[in-house]
Task: inverse folding
């Protein structure tokens, strides 16, 4: 169930013993004092790309807490950690998600990401879809500019990839189309940190999450994960610079524009307008080989066009610049 507005829906949290999963930015939110007044057990011992050992620390803390509800407040990482804690603890505790960025859509999906020995691992189960979601656009007021850009691009990438995914259905395509339209409609107001733009982008990201919950992502996301750790890019930034390379192949196979409402050139213009740079490396050739080896083949299989390793190498050559 999705609820809009924290103040009028905060009663959802009352009468529960809350296990609060959040990071340090939680304390700067207007809702923080109210949530703290409910006496939650707090877990913040994880990094932006959460590690398995951090998740297991959370599992032990949750088991010892006696809590009956997991409350995740934050971006994709806290919500993913909350899902993983539920999964690995074997609990049936409901998850309440309060997203604080407009990009990951994690509040709308039944899967999560965790890193084990430096390798990305996906965790998925139907019961990991949050039971209740509170969308509160005011939390976006203090989002840093780079994060604002990267998360918006992540939402747009989700919607675009969902639309062309092999697993796409008429329902998922309709949701993805609406998400694309909303990102484009609210982009300028969102980047200007206007209330209407923040509200619209939060809805767009939620819709994009609903779309990938039905279809999962494709080659662009498969290609982006290693870029985040190698170059320190945020996830949405990395996905966005991979997407045009994949899109060129898909457009060619489709005989024209493969996505309604936006073209590849328009997408590239958005990246340029936002000033989102490409990685620069002193060891470019070696980096490209590492990147090509890192790609999750399962995610490649959901792309409407097949890619082999040589094509991955060529695409990464267009992404990574020599220093």
Result:
């Amino acid at each position: 169930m999705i609820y809009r507005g924290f103040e009028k829906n905060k009663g959802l949290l009352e009468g529960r013993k809350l296990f609060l999963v959040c990071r340090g930015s939680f304390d700067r939110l207007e809702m923080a004092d109210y949530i703290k007044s409910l006496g939650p057990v707090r877990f913040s011992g994880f990094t932006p790309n959460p590690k398995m050992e951090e998740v297991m620390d959370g599992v032990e803390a949750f088991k010892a807490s006696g809590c009956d509800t997991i409350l995740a407040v934050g971006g994709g990482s806290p919500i993913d950690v909350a899902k993983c804690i539920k999964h690995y603890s074997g609990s049936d505790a409901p998850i309440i998600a309060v997203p604080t960025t407009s990009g990951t859509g994690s509040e709308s999906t039944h899967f999560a990401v965790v890193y084990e020995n430096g390798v990305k691992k996906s965790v998925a189960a139907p019961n990991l879809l949050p039971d209740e979601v509170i969308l509160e656009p005011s939390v976006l007021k203090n989002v840093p500019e780079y994060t604002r850009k990267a998360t918006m691009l992540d939402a747009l990438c989700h919607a675009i990839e969902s639309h062309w995914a092999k697993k796409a259905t008429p329902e998922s395509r309709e949701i993805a189309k609406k998400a694309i339209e909303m990102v484009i409609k609210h982009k300028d107001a969102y980047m200007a940190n206007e209330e209407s733009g923040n509200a619209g982008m939060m809805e767009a990201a939620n819709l994009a999450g609903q779309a990938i919950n039905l279809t999962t992502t494709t080659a662009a996301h498969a290609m982006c994960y290693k870029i985040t750790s190698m170059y320190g890019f945020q996830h949405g930034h990395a996905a966005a610079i991979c997407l045009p390379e994949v899109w060129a192949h898909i457009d060619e196979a489709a005989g024209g524009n493969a996505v309604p409402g936006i073209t590849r050139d328009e997408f590239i213009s958005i990246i340029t307008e936002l000033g989102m740079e490409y990685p620069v490396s002193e060891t470019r050739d070696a980096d490209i080989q590492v990147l090509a080896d890192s790609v999750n083949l399962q995610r490649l299989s959901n792309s409407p066009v097949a890619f082999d390793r040589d094509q991955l190498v060529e695409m990464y050559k267009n992404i990574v610049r020599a220093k």
Observations:
- The beta strands are 2-4, 18-21, 41-43, 69-74, 95-99, 111-116, 119-124, 132-135, 280-281, 321-322.
- The chain has twelve helices and ten strands.
- The longest strand covers residues 69-74.
